[in-house]
Structure formats: structure tokens, C-alpha cells
Amino acid sequence: DVNRNDYRAWNGLAQVYELLGLNGYCIYYYSRAAQLKPDDSRMLVSLGETYERMDKIPNALKCYYKAHSTGDIEGMALFKLA
């Protein structure tokens, strides 16, 4: 049975589309995952990197700032903000 409220499924789809280079879909699926688990810093950094690839820098910076604010596990958000 499919659980539409499981952020891992949305995150997994985003990663697949990221590998395929389909950034528009990638943003959609990362955004859905982030709605379900807004405190996942790694996912927010991935969303920010996707925005950055699409030259949507203000959106990317918002993602990095939010990731840093939620406890940036790997320190990537702070690195991206520097």
C-alpha cells in the first residue's frame, strides 16, 4: 500500500529525477518531501542545490538558510552560504 505522507518516497523520486537531470521534477518532489519533513537539513540542501543548478539563487539561499536553521547535520548549508 502506498503512503503519500511518507517523505522518503518523495525524496527518493527527487533523487531519481536529479540523476536524470530533470530539475523541474526534482524541485517538485523535494518540495513535497520538505513539506512532510521540514526539519531534514540534507533534503533542504539538495533542494537548494537544484535551485542553484537552475540559476534560482534567491530560492537556493532560502533553502540553505532554512537547512542551517534546522540543525544542518553535515554542515553543507553553512558551506553553501559562505
From TrEMBL:
GO terms (BP aspect): anaphase-promoting complex-dependent catabolic process; cell division; positive regulation of mitotic metaphase/anaphase transition; protein ubiquitination
InterPro entries given in the database record: TPR-like_helical_dom_sf, TPR_rpt
Lineage top rank: taxon: Eukaryota
Coiled coil: none
GO CC annotations on file: anaphase-promoting complex
UniProt KW rRNA-binding keyword: no
Gene3D superfamilies associated with the record: Tetratricopeptide repeat domain
Keyword Flavoprotein on entry: no
UniProt keyword annotations, A-Z: TPR repeat
PANTHER family the UniProt entry points to: CELL DIVISION CYCLE 16,23,27 (PTHR12558), CELL DIVISION CYCLE PROTEIN 23 HOMOLOG (PTHR12558:SF10)
Name of the molecule in the record: CDC23
Taxonomic lineage from the root: Eukaryota, Metazoa, Ecdysozoa, Arthropoda, Hexapoda
